[in-house]
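Long-time lurker. I teach an intro course on protein structure, and each term I like to show students one example going from raw sequence to a predicted 3D structure in token notation. This year I'd like something fresh instead of my usual example. Would anyone be willing to generate the tokens for the chain below so I can use it in lecture? Attribution to the forum is fine with me.
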Amino acid sequence: MENDTDAENSARHRHKAEKRTTINDARQSGDSSHAESTLKNKPDDTSEAAAPPKTSIFQYLQSELKRDYLPATNEANFSAKRERVYAFIKIPREVEKFMFFGYFQCVDAFLYVFTYLPLRVLLAFFTLFARASPKRFGSSRWMAPSEICDLLKAVLLLVCIVIMNYVDVSVLYHMVRGQAIIKLYLFFNMLEIADKLFSSFGQDILDSLFWTATEPRERKREHFGVLPHFVLGAIYVFLHAMLVLLQATTLNVAFNSHNKALLTIMMSNNFVELKGSVFKRFEKNNLFQMSVSDVRERFHYTVLLFIVMIRNMTEFSWNSDHFWVLIPDMLLVLVTEHFVDWLKHAFITKFNEIPAEVYNEYTTSLAYDMTTSRQTTAFSDHCDLVSRRMGFTPFPVCVLVVRIVFQSVKISGAMGWLLVFIGFLCLLSLKFLINIVLLGNAIKIVKRHKETQSKEKNSPKPQRSAFRKVPRMVSFSAVPDQRPLGGDAPLFKSNSTISMESIRLNKEMLETETCSRPEEIGQVKVN
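-- Reply from a regular --
Happy to contribute to a lecture. Here you go:
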């Protein structure tokens, strides 16, 4: 105790001595105010520091449980996230509206081959026999270019149907059924990839055939001739028809397997598609290509299921009980395809911040195709436009359907051919009805699009995306010869592929961004 008291006394004496020394130095220098401020700011070693208030565990827990926060302080962020959720829920409906319109365009192109094409060929022959002068069209041709194309299509179909009659479908089925499950799974995936490759290149082969046959004769010959192109087209149609037949046979084996393991594996392959597409970067034109590919794939699965049903019903002597056995598996295939498409498009639009209204633009593009093909200046038939746009070539599928139907349904006698004629009239009526409805909806869509464009031109500010501050609306240049009603160009080129060179920025939006982003606008080249 005495030692502690002596230490405290010595500390006080030392502190007082330091104070006196500081005051004397300040007085000698004549700066008394500086001395007083120095004494005030100098810490006192003898004073004890104020201890922080102690908090118990109960008080800490109580503060954590009663801690408050205000989402309203970040209102913009939470509102944007809510809009993303609404857009995610809205995507399946918008996708189905586009898919529905595109699907029936594929149906229309498919029925065209069985209904309008035979009638057009007959009219072409009647016109050829009734034509008095070959100079009617300003050339030495006896037939118009459209009539030549129709005749080539008919001959191409007949040749491939005759060749397909030599293919034994039953032997092919047993060859496929004898393979292991894993082999069939890999084989089906290979067939899907090959089908997409054939579809992307097949229409180019047919277009080259039609152009070679109708090219003006005054020009210098730069091709191999019509006959080599026709042989090449026939080879393509036959090989593609065989590929679709193998797909249908593999799917038929999966339906008829006892444990349904192969069918389950094949359906799970659709979910693998999500991994390959969802996490990739997509722009509007890339998403459009994927969307039309999904439309073609849906119709392709419909044709495959129809072939499977026909083959199974034939094997069971058209017993209605077996038809109801097939229905659950067929619905499983279709529902899985729809569900995977919904998820794929919903997550792609979410990750790439693409608004749901983009599918309205895609539908408008298909509507422009339908209206332009009805003009007198149209450079192609609507069936060919659908083939270029969606990669759907109906000729191989039609050849296969004719081969399967005539093998499964025996026609004999006058009554049989009368039923064939009645079936033709039913298909013709269905084609006529679908065509009228599609054309009416296409005209409404085109008019609505033109009204929207006129309103946007008159409005002071362009519409902006709900996800980005930078406007994402783009317009696409059209094929020079393809002009829609009223002179406006379609959104996308009617081609099997869309290049980035066809994109043009909206000039009105570009001008509004000039003041806020001059350094970026200077780098954009407007065509």
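Some talking points for your students: Strands lie at 474-476, 503-505. The radius of gyration is 38 Å.
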